[in-house]
Amino acid sequence: MASPSSTQTQSRSPEIRKDPVNNRWVIFSPARAKRPTDFKAKSPQNPNSSSSCPFCIGNEHECAPEIFRVPPDPKSDWKIRVIQNLYPALSRDIGSKKDGGPDGEMRCTGDLGRVVTGFGFHDVVIESPVHSVQLQDLEPREVGEVLLACKKRIEQIKEYDLIKYVQVFKNHGASAGASMSHSHSQLLALPVIPPTISARINSTKEYFDQTGKCCLCEVQPKDLQIDVTTHFISIVPFAATFPFEIWIIPRNHSSHFHELDNEKAVDLGGLLKLTLRKISVQLNNPPFNFMIQTAPLQAIDTQLAYIHWFLQIVPQLAGVGGFEIGTGCYINPVFSEDAAKVMREVNVP
Amino acid sequence: MASPSSTQTQSRSPEIRKDPVNNRWVIFSPARAKRPTDFKAKSPQNPNSSSSCPFCIGNEHECAPEIFRVPPDPKSDWKIRVIQNLYPALSRDIGSKKDGGPDGEMRCTGDLGRVVTGFGFHDVVIESPVHSVQLQDLEPREVGEVLLACKKRIEQIKEYDLIKYVQVFKNHGASAGASMSHSHSQLLALPVIPPTISARINSTKEYFDQTGKCCLCEVQPKDLQIDVTTHFISIVPFAATFPFEIWIIPRNHSSHFHELDNEKAVDLGGLLKLTLRKISVQLNNPPFNFMIQTAPLQAIDTQLAYIHWFLQIVPQLAGVGGFEIGTGCYINPVFSEDAAKVMREVNVP
Ligand SMILES: Nc1ncnc2c1ncn2[C@@H]1O[C@H](COP(=O)(O)OP(=O)(O)O[C@H]2O[C@H](CO)[C@@H](O)[C@H](O)[C@H]2O)[C@@H](O)[C@H]1O
Ligand SMILES: Nc1ncnc2c1ncn2[C@@H]1O[C@H](COP(=O)(O)OP(=O)(O)O[C@H]2O[C@H](CO)[C@@H](O)[C@H](O)[C@H]2O)[C@@H](O)[C@H]1O
Question: What percentage of chain B has pLDDT greater than the value 90?
Answer without folding.
Answer: 74
